[in-house]
Write a structure and sequence with these properties.
Length: about 210
């Protein structure tokens, strides 16, 4: 098999397939790039969206963008890694559900917090947009907190969906969002950070734990 390469930003959603690769145990290359790098012609030739993550088998001229697509590919290629868990079909389906929640709901809710100008040109109104987005993020996190009331992980066992949610919780920590009322999310952070594959990803990206 040709060697895999993952392009990502430090601490971004590319941390998710980074951790998935560590779960597989295969040899791969990690290339952390800057936002400026992602807009350069050589990168855009590989991924016209100019985004991360990007999984590559460069010897085959194979480039795959989008987290959900990459995680599906890795799960198909390395079933022994149990990226979506070791349980029943129903448990794995729930893992996919929570991955969709983290990717489509939580992640997207953060976008106005990172770049309010992309949503409204009036600079005087941008703080209000960010404020509303902050409220929305906190509301969405309540769904996960409630789900974790009787379990340690989102689908009952550790899966890549928990890693994606953990990444968004890192963003909340960075932005100093008040999630103090969500004790189950604090428990999830501890549980995810105890996973060896996550610890390896943190070390490789030069990130500190937040628990």
């Amino acid at each position: 098999m040709q060697k895999l390469k993952l392009y990502g930003f430090k601490g971004a959603c590319s941390f998710v397939p980074h951790t998935a690769l560590n779960l597989t145990g295969v040899d791969y290359d990690l290339q952390l790039i800057s936002h400026a790098d992602s807009k350069k012609p050589d990168y855009l030739a590989k991924n016209p969206q100019g985004t991360v993550p990007l999984l590559a088998i460069e010897a085959d001229d194979f480039y795959l963008a989008q987290n959900v697509a990459i995680l599906h590919y890795l799960d198909e290629k390395f079933p022994q890694a149990h990226i979506f868990g070791k349980g029943s079909d129903k448990q794995k389906a729930k893992a996919h559900q929570w991955l969709g929640y983290a990717n489509a709901d939580v992640h997207k809710a953060f976008l106005p917090l990172f770049n309010a100008g992309a949503f409204i040109d009036d600079k005087d109104l941008q703080p209000k947009v960010a404020e509303k987005a902050q409220q929305r993020v906190i509301e969405i996190f309540k769904i996960a907190n409630d789900n974790l009331a009787d379990k340690d992980y989102m689908s009952g066992e550790f899966t890549i969906a928990d890693v994606y949610l953990y990444v968004t919780l890192r963003w909340a920590h960075l932005l100093k969002l008040d999630l103090s009322g969500y004790r189950n999310l604090a428990k999830l952070i501890n549980n995810v950070e105890s996973q060896p594959a996550v610890q390896k990803s943190l070390k490789e990206e030069g990130l500190d734990v937040i628990a």
